[in-house]
Design a protein that fits this description.
The protein is mainly alpha-helical. The chain contains six helices and no strands. The longest helix has 19 residues, at 120-138. Mean pLDDT is 77; it is low at 19-44 and 187-192.
Length: 212
């Protein structure tokens, strides 16, 4: 996910977000507490994973927000894990229930990348809903609404015959209810920009019918 615009990166290995143009190490990813490792020209060396891909190594909190280097954080999900659809849904639900929708989005994004063409928008929509909840839990009503709307639009075509037991109708209703909550302004005169952060765990949806 791009930390600048909040949209899911379709080319995660790229140095620049294809949606907003932000660099992978944009202002939100840098800090005065970053480690001092630099290249000859003075630029900070980019963090990379074990396979050499650009991947910011700063710790993150339970909602995926970057923390200073050296701070205790919540481990991110490993990338590129192969899971069956049932395994992906079970792991994503576990993370949602634990109040970690950002981490659930990483699981669902893996499923989206591995899905057959006919199901790609289904998994992408689920990942976008998780990002929408992440923004809502961070107090970003505008970002939450935008991602929830995109996720619902991607899921809607699957409502008639939802695969893998996914409760598409229930998720669409959940997204509509949450966007309605995010649209409710604060009490007059309090100066806030929205209803405030929502509790991530308590607000998490059920991905499969029957609560599975």
């Amino acid at each position: 996910m791009c930390d600048a615009c909040g949209r899911i990166r379709e080319r995660p290995g790229s140095d620049v977000c294809e949606h907003c143009g932000a660099g992978a190490d944009g202002p939100e990813e840098q800090s005065r507490t970053d480690p001092p490792a630099v290249l000859g020209g003075g630029a900070r060396r980019r963090d990379r994973d074990e396979e050499g891909r650009a991947r910011n190594a700063r710790p993150r909190d339970g909602l995926g927000r970057p923390l200073p280097y050296g701070a205790p954080g919540v481990a991110r999900q490993p990338e590129g894990v192969t899971r069956t659809p049932a395994e992906a849904l079970t792991e994503a639900q576990r993370l949602l229930d634990a109040g970690m929708p950002f981490h659930a989005h990483e699981v669902l994004e893996d499923a989206w990348k591995a899905a057959p063409e006919a199901e790609r928008e289904l998994w992408r929509g689920l990942a976008q809903l998780a990002v929408g909840l992440t923004h809502a839990a961070r107090g970003n009503a505008a970002g939450g609404t935008a991602l929830l709307d995109r996720g619902a639009a991607a899921l809607a075509p699957y409502a008639a015959a939802a695969p893998h037991g996914i409760d598409v109708a229930g998720l669409l209703a959940w997204a509509a209810e949450l966007t309605g909550r995010l649209a409710d302004g604060p009490a007059a005169g309090d100066g806030a920009a929205g209803p405030g952060p929502v509790p991530a765990a308590e607000t998490a949806p059920r991905l499969r019918a029957g609560g599975g």
